[in-house]
Give the backbone structure.
Amino acid sequence: MDETRELLAQTAAMAADFLASLDERPVYPPADADALRAALGGPLPEESSDPRDVIAQLRAGAEPGVVAIPSGRYFGFVIGGSVPAALAADWLTSTWDQNAGLYVAGPSASVVEANAKRSAA
């Protein structure tokens, strides 16, 4: 469990670094599609990989193509924002990994989904 805690702490630090960089980074990323395909492509490994390596490779390969949507300088589309509470809630619900489609597979998630549907109606 200590390794999982360390991985999540490192990932949280990467996320915080990204958010802290929004004022300085370009709104639209400099990477082109071919560079991103080269960085993110290739065969999948036959064996499991160290999770720290997976996250480091994801960051290195994807970040050059990440649009600064959470930035106050992004005006491309109305997509939404990554306010701290929404980001933290997303992490927590991803950690819980519940299925909202069936009550028996995720009671809380199912109730939240039903409430959201009623609110949207």
